[in-house]
Amino acid sequence: MDTFISLWQFVIGTLIVCNLTLDCEEFSPKDVVYAVNCGGDYFKDSHGINYQSDESSSGIASDFGKQFLVFGRVSQSDSVLYQTEKYDSDTFGYDVPLDGDGDYVLVLKFSEVYFNSPGAKVFGVLLNDRHRVISDLDIYEKVGKAVAHEEYIPFSVQNGKMNFNGESSTVYDSFRLDFLKGELDNPKINAFYLYKGDIKDVPRLPPLSSAVKSEQFNEEQEEEDEPIVPRDKILSGPKAEDPYINDETSLVLPVLVAIGCAVPITLCLWKLG
Fold first, then answer.
1. By the 8 A CB rule, do 55 and 126 touch?
2. Residue 129, pLDDT score
3. Phi, psi values for residue 66, rounded to 5°
4. Complete edge-to-edge strand list for the sheet that includes strand 188-189
C-alpha cells in the first residue's frame, strides 16, 4: 500500500507542480540569505535555492525518510529535501544570519515519515528567543504521511529590532531559530530557508491533493479494520483471497447443478412433443 501511495503521489505531485504552482515572477534565489538541508547534504532545488549541508551540531540527523522516493506536493527531485531531517528529544535549533534591515520570510519545510496518525508528534517553533511563531504543529494532522508541508513566517528587522505580529525583540546580525520540545514526541525540521523580500513573492506549495488524502484515509481504515489476534495465537500464514481458490469442487458443483436442471426440462419437452 505504501508503494502504491508513493507512486500515486508522484503522478499527482508532478502534474500539480508543473501546472498549478503559483507564479512568483519577483522571486529570485539570489535574495535567499540562508538555506539548510537539515540532516542532509548540499542540494539545489527547482527554484534555484542552494541549500547548504547541515553542519550544525545541534539536533540528531536522520535519513529515515529515504524509504520514500517521492513526497506529495513536490516533484521527485525536490523530494530530497524531505528525506532527511534533524530532530531531538529536547529543544534544539539553529543560528540564522541576517542581511541588514528589511522584510524577511522564514520558510520551514516538514514531512511526517514515521507516525501513521495525528496526535503523535506535536511541537512548536520559537524565533529570536521571544516570538512563538508556531504552536502545536502536528504535521500528520495538516497533510498526512510522506507529504510536504511548509510554514511561512514573515517578519521585519529595523534599527536592531525584530518585529513579528506586533511584538518586537532586540536582534543583531543573526537570530535563534528553535524547535520546541512538547509533550508528544520530538520536534523536527527537514529544511528551511530565509528569504529577504515580500511574502507574496515566495513560492508556495500547490494545494493538498484530495486523492492523496483519500488514499491515506483508506490505508488507515484498512489498518483499523484488521482483526485483532490474541497474543497467544500465531498466524499460520497470509490470508487467502478466496478460500476455495484451490478447491476443484468449486468448479464441479456448478456443472452438476446445470445438468440436474437441464435433464427434467429436456424430458418435459420430449413428452410434449
1. no
2. 97
3. -70, -10
4. 60-62, 85-87, 188-189
pLDDT of 147-202, one tens digit each? 999 999 999 999 999 999 999 999 999 999 999 999 999 999 999 999 999 999 99
Q: How far is CA 241 from CA 222, 244, 245, 246, in A?
A: 15, 9, 8, 11
Q: For the whole model, what pTM was predicted? A: 0.71
3-state secondary structure of 171: coil
Task: Please give the helix or strand (H or E) that residue 136 lies within, else none.
Answer: strand 131-137
Please write the tens of the pLDDT for every residue from 139-148.
Answer: 999 999 999 9
Q: Which three cell numbers stand for residue 96?
A: 540564522
Starting at the earlier edge strand, list the strands of the sheet with 92-97.
92-97, 174-184, 122-127, 131-137
- Three-state SS at 119: coil
Q: Are 175 and 164 in contact (CB under 8 A)?
A: no
